[in-house]
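Q: For a teaching handout, I want to show students what a protein-ligand complex looks like in token form. Below are the inputs, and the small molecule is iron/sulfur cluster. Please produce the holo structure.
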Amino acid sequence: MANVNYMLRGTAACPGCPIPRELNNILEIAGKDTVLVVPASCSTIIMGDDIHGMPSVVPVVHSPFAAPSAIASGIKAAMNQLNKKGNVIVWAGDGSTGDIGFASLSGAAERNEDIIYICYDNEAYMNTGIQRSGLTPRGAWSTTTPEGKREFKKPLPFLMMDHKIPYVATLSIAYPFDYEAKIKKAMTISGFRYLHILSPCPPGWRFDPSLTIEIAKLAVETGIWPLMEYENNKLKLTGPSILLKDKSKRKPIEEYLKLQERFKELSDEEKRLLEEDINAMWLEIERRMS
Ligand SMILES: Cc1ncc(C[n+]2csc(CCOP(=O)(O)OP(=O)(O)O)c2C)c(N)n1
Ligand code: SF4
Ligand SMILES: [Mg+2]
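A: Here is the structure, written as tokens, with iron/sulfur cluster included.
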């Protein structure tokens, strides 16, 4: 990727946090004619507070938790009215995307608003102290699931495909060529585009900050995070996930779980249920690809 720093140095992100890198790569491709809409989250702090200032070189609108898709739709309508070109990108966490902002997200997708929505999924409400979200995986520890979450991870990418929007993709910062190709593709399409990045969080997932990329890579290699692309009503796997359709080619899930203390207390039964969730997700992918 080009070596332009769209995110300036010295953000308030924790050591090992992938958010500044993920955002920088997106903004490098989107360019300076971009407005970011960021709802309440870790990114609100990273994108600027009284102490650290504003680290991004593009304008950022901080939005209420529930409203980023509605605000982005309004900004795009105003830009059209003023004949201004440029991208409007929502950058939101899993709590905002899958739970509290889902109504406005679904509405904007159904209206096929001409915006790009990117969910960085760190699988909990991290900014307020690691509370479980609808996208926390089964069995994971959080401060509100001290014995492990009992429910499955809400399948957001599939739910967005069911809105029949022009483009849906899943991404991982561990696969930069696949990552960059999907952002570039999203920029060439009009209408509502939904991108979903699995975004490992060292303090929330309880792993050493040096392991962020390793864990992002293992999520793909074990099949818990398939890289996919949905376009023109068709779903396909991308990058290493193409071969991982064959279950025997996936690494054992233990390799992913054992590096994260949030799964330390996982019982055999919870692990079995988690594996069932993963198998069901792959069956759903096959069904949608056929
Ligand atoms: C309506 C409303 N409810 C709760 C909050 C408090 N709050 C601020 S950030 C946050 C967590 C956001 O979680 P997520 O969207 O996953 O982003 P992350 O912090 O993980 O980056 C919460 C609960 C708020 N700002 N507004
Ligand atoms: S809590 Fe997690 S997501 Fe939030 S800034 Fe720290 S590493 Fe990043
Ligand atoms: Mg989160």
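A: Two things your students might notice: The longest strand covers residues 87-93. The beta strands are 34-39, 60-63, 87-93, 116-121, 167-172, 193-198, 228-231, 234-237.
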